[in-house]
Amino acid sequence: MIEAHGLTKRYGPKLAVDDVTFTVRPGAVTGFLGPNGAGKSTTMRMIMGLDRPTAGRVTVNGSAYAQHERPLAEVGALLEAKAVHPGRTARQHLLALAATHGIAPGRVDEVVELTGLTAVAGKRVGGFSLGMGQRLGIAVALLGDPRTLILDEPVNGLDPEGVLWVRNLARHLAGEGRTVFLSSHLMSEVALTADHVIVIGRGRILADMPVQELVDGASHRVVRVRSPQATDLADALRREGGDVAPGDDGALEVTGVEAARVGEIAAAGGVVLHELTPVSSTLEEAYLELTADAVEYQAETLDDPAGVTTDGAAR
Amino acid sequence: MTATTARGPETATPAVVVHRVTFARVLRAEWIKFRTLRSTVWTVVITAVVMVGLALMMAAIMRVAADTPEMSEGMSQDPGLQAIGLTGTTIVTFGYSFGALAVGVLATLIVTSEYSTGTVRSTFAAVPRRLPVLWAKLVVIVLATAVVVTVALAIAFVATAPLLEDAGLSVDLSDSEQVRALVGCVLYLATVAAFALAVGTLMRHSAGAIFTIVALFFVVPLIFSIVVQASDAAWTDWVNKLLPSVAGERVISRGLPTDALLDPWVGYAVLAGYTVVLLVAAAVTLRRRDA
Q: A2-213: CATH homologous superfamily?
């Protein structure tokens, strides 16, 4: 259980985290979603007592992180990949951290095996790939068998098999009743892994709700129709209470009217249809809509593999 | 082990035993970190080797000088040598300056490398109270330095004994001043290590911290040794004798104290005082600053 109350962090004139209040509950995976620079990492560092809040407070399992007698048994954290001296081996790094809590070397071997690092545990971390560094970070997080896990962008740099592994691990740990708090800038990743999502943008909480609710709430359905008699069709649809906007390449984008009803209206009006396609907006679109005003570094022209264009905003 | 019943299939092993964080455990962790870096181990070994080597070289020169009247004549009239005081311990501890450089850099890096590599965040996540980490690092570097320097001096003592005997400069362990110089060498270098650890903790950047140590202990004293000669102003004498290295080194020297230098133990106390102040400042900032 993580509880933040009015948590604020200011770096000079810049407000990185702005009066944030939320609760992360045990037994579920909570996604922490936001664009880069939104304040995710800063919030996580404050939870771990690494950064001192400018205002507000945050507790883990009932008290401030630094007040726990066995910190690693309370929270395991992956805060950045390869936060390890490159001259040490993975095993040496884990042994040193284990020593602070009197954790037996046998447990080090366990987490090494669990994270698939057995073959490279004796190698110096300097030669590790980003993915291996990420696995070592997860091994560190698991070391103390913690009740709460904080994972900052855990799938960064992992291959598809590693991504799947992290996803299953997070779900498994939550299934054991642990608190799992996992950040990502990818909505799709959070949708696949998390039960609950907290969306942050420019240091403020934009949404705090079950993932399904966010998806349902934000995805309004659109029907795309193409017709040589576009003007007639648009008028007919508007009379039925539909919202019609001209899409790209002459198609119409209709909201508020089901696809079947659009077909019926067209038939009744004797309008020829060349295309009738129901389009549901993607998760990625829902997320972008939510954070549109809260992106730290806005590109001048939106690079856009998902097919989200500025036209979408005109709907 | 009742916890096993509540666990999933993958972790159906006995529950992980996790103890409280104690200073002894943090000390153990810091010792593991210290000995698992090859650079640390190499620095320690090279320091000992160079200190022994320099002592042997000086002893050999003394042995030659003993047979060469002009050379011993010149040495007995050199004001610099007069100040240091030329006895067996001067030869045995001859490498202390190099030792200070090596130990200073090593102690700085022990803490600054944690910041440059990001290890510090793992460290503070495990020990969020932070101060035990600083004190554990202090114990590790001070003890390691003391042991290495003691071993190096012991080897140098044995290795140079025949040469020094021939040169008429045998170390006399019944002379309390000579014993003080030997013990002082260990103390001085251990204190330099603590000083450098504090500077590293305060500055957090390797290059800046190492530059500061080198400037304070090697460059500024060099400049002042010239300034003191050239100037009659009393303040230059005072600044010079209160420099951390000039003051601290007095505990190793065998020369008679002059007005321009502090008494051996007073000098050492000055260095120790700086070190304590810096360590307190380091502890305060370590607790406050974001990692």
A: P-loop containing nucleotide triphosphate hydrolases (3.40.50.300)
